[in-house]
């Protein structure tokens, strides 16, 4: 089976400086990440802030060039960022950001903005473009009379619909959504999540869905990768992964999700803060917060290994057989 | 039992546009009350109005009493004694609530000087004790750091410590965990619950996250378009919501178990306060609405089971038949 997107061993290093005169230190924001995305599949990427999930999302599109590793889109290596080939390819892969107001131009009507990708990529003629904008607005649930509105006249949920319509304008094969519903109220969030699911079923696009909200990710995604400090620590089909998390970090994440009607008692509350990527702990990056850490965790970085049922985990203590006992 | 704070018929209008329509709310000493609802429904405005923190273009009517003292239209000096002293408030974004160019320790000592008249070594000692209390590791060595040298979760802990400086009777937490990561969110919720128990302090927890509210609150008020639409004990309200809006909020939350079905959103959006529907404000989005709902507004009335409800056609009371068999087997 060929994949829509194949990323191998991606590395992105920012140089961070501590203080005005401090020495520049390399910060490994994304550190050896490999991913596969099939046509029509939704892959969730979860993790805390600073885990590198947004950087990874941009690297998958080639917006942020990789310093190591490679991305293949539809079997072809990704052209260099900024090149004509890459610009052409961008029509086939689009992005949706968290804050729709920041992603939209406040001085253009929404119809103009939804139309922009069609103009840029020279898709269709004048007439067909106008018709396409109408279709897109209908598909995302915007009323035709809203076409001449400006972004500030719309609610948060409607703005996000505009951004989604614009991303879909060029009929992409892949969509990277970076926290698309985090800024929305639950009732509106559910509308947008349902919209993304419906659109995906209709168009068959592959979607990378980056979020810190586990409940939304579980609902929408087929497969989930959990990131911690620039590395994937666990990956698997979303239902199984959340029902039976194997990596201690995933277990803590799942346990920290507040559920209505459940009191605080009996939850695993993770101690400590996510560490600074500039001061990455030795060995397994999670070991200072892990209640099961042993000597090997402090010294050796665990590699992702298969744990059965199409799942992988990067933990010394998780092997195929013992997987279920960890709790 | 006397109430700590009583809000009676509190209304707020911005530039003549009413956003809060006669809210009645009581907080008992030591109680944990949750306020939930979508953005723009008046959760924060209720408490900002009560504490006189709204801009001058807002007109506030009604009454807010703390013990014997009336807070609405109270002179500034008496309000300043109450704010931070008897009622403290923490906000959503801790890093913008702290002064970025003043060391954290000094900001804490300022609060102690204002509210408890502590100075010098005494203030420093108390500030360190508070930092320990809210779980800042190695407080002694981090006393002289700036806010940007702390993470978001730790900044929120410092905000909580500063709020505790005046030993308040009531802590108002306005979306205290919304800007934080899930694991840190759990820590802060845990901290708030622990502090409330230790200090016997009443807490008002404003949030749109029903899950978070369930964990720290005893009683919950659901607000919609500037009114309370349902109010009751947390277990009751969460096991069997009766207002269609409350029910809709629950149904919209994706679940961590069960099948991955499409979500059930509440259709439409929150009404514009300048253009509220004639009847029940929720009627245009409500699947149970009948003619009455579009023309007349139901009042918030006490129900037999102890809750208060503002709905003409509430959902049936008995929904427990689902939960009951589970209790038998466990």
UniProtKB/TrEMBL annotation, chain A:
Q: Cellular component terms, GO, for this chain's entry?
A: plasma membrane
Q: Which CDD domains would you find in this protein's record? A: ABC_NikE_OppD_transporters (cd03257)
InterPro entries found in the cross-reference section: AAA+_ATPase, ABC_transp_ATP-bind, ABC_transporter-like_ATP-bd, ABC_transporter-like_CS, Oligopep_ABC_C, P-loop_NTPase
UniProt keyword annotations, A-Z: ATP-binding, Nucleotide-binding, Transport
| Subcellular location, record wording | Cell inner membrane
Q: Report any one BP term from Gene Ontology.
A: transmembrane transport
Q: Which Gene3D superfamilies did the record assign?
A: P-loop containing nucleotide triphosphate hydrolases
Q: Which NCBIfam families match?
A: oligo_HPY (TIGR01727)
- Family that this chain belongs to: Belongs to the ABC transporter superfamily.
* Name of this protein: ATP-binding cassette domain-containing protein
- The protein's organism comes out as Thalassovita mangrovi
Automatic annotation (TrEMBL), chain B:
Q: SMART domains attached here?
A: AAA (SM00382)
Q: Where in the cell is it found?
A: Cell inner membrane
Question: Where does it primarily localize?
Answer: membrane
How does this chain sit within the bilayer? Peripheral membrane protein
Q: Which GO terms describe its cellular component?
A: plasma membrane
The protein's matches in Pfam families, at most eight in alphabetical order, are given as: ABC_tran, oligo_HPY
Keyword set for this entry? Answer: ATP-binding, Cell membrane, Membrane, Nucleotide-binding, Transport
Any one Gene Ontology MF annotation carried by this entry is: ATP hydrolysis activity
Sorted alphabetically, the Gene Ontology BP terms of this entry are:
peptide transport; transmembrane transport
Q: Which PROSITE patterns match?
A: ABC_TRANSPORTER_1 (PS00211), ABC_TRANSPORTER_2 (PS50893)
- InterPro entries with a match to the protein in the record: AAA+_ATPase (IPR003593), ABC_Ni/Peptide_Import (IPR050388), ABC_transporter-like_ATP-bd (IPR003439), ABC_transporter-like_CS (IPR017871), Oligopep_ABC_C (IPR013563), P-loop_NTPase (IPR027417)
- Domain of life of the source: Bacteria
The name of this protein is ATP-binding cassette domain-containing protein
Source organism of the structure: Thalassovita mangrovi
